[in-house]
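Backbones bend. Shown next:

***
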Amino acid sequence: MNNLFFSFVITTIAGLSTMLGTLSIFFKHEKKLKIISFSLIFSSSVMIFISIFDLIPNSFKYLFKYYEFIPCIIIITIFIFFGFLFIYFIKHIINIEEGLYKVGIISMIALIIHNIPEGIITFLTTTKDFKLGISLSISIALHNIPEGISIFVPLYFSGKNKNKAFLYTFIAGFSELFGAIIAYIFLLKLVNEYFFSFSFAVTAGIMLYITSYELIPNAIKLCNKKLLILYFILGIIIMTLSKLII
């Protein structure tokens, strides 16, 4: 019973590390454009890194148990494309004008979809291997911080209700616990390799769409390209180091 309790706690902490992204509020407002551009491009580099070196390989790993190499590639490509289509339709369904506010909302939706299966994995891993669960949760917490920034900063600086920026960032992080609850209730009945493979690849498609059509284009409007490249490389370096350390 204690193991289950700590599994919930660890998953919740990993998810709510997203809220650390709200600390960007303490930067001086005269540096608003630099904060926004850095946040957008840094978050995009993190999302690309996670998609290419984490989500897609893990999707392949689970699917490769059942199919040969080529069928796996085809199926995962379809899943990724499904993620593209999903967020494309979501983007056009929600009646919000273009700009930072829409970027924040779309990022929140994408991260909720990403955090639910992530919460399931963290919970299941921790119940079976506590040390491995701790290691996994630290890794998740590290990449949840810039993901939180990708939600909070656009919403906060969009000029809309600033309280919503905190609330929506919290909801995205808290969805990780929702994943743990799903794992606890259904466990092995519904959560299997197919579920993980599908959710990982779809999330990768969503993140790649957001970086290509939302984060990077909006960042380019606010800052010079040389500085954006520097921010992007910084994000890749930090994620690579975290991958090597954890």
Summary: The CA atoms of residues 37 and 224 lie 9 Å apart. The chain has a mean pLDDT of 81.
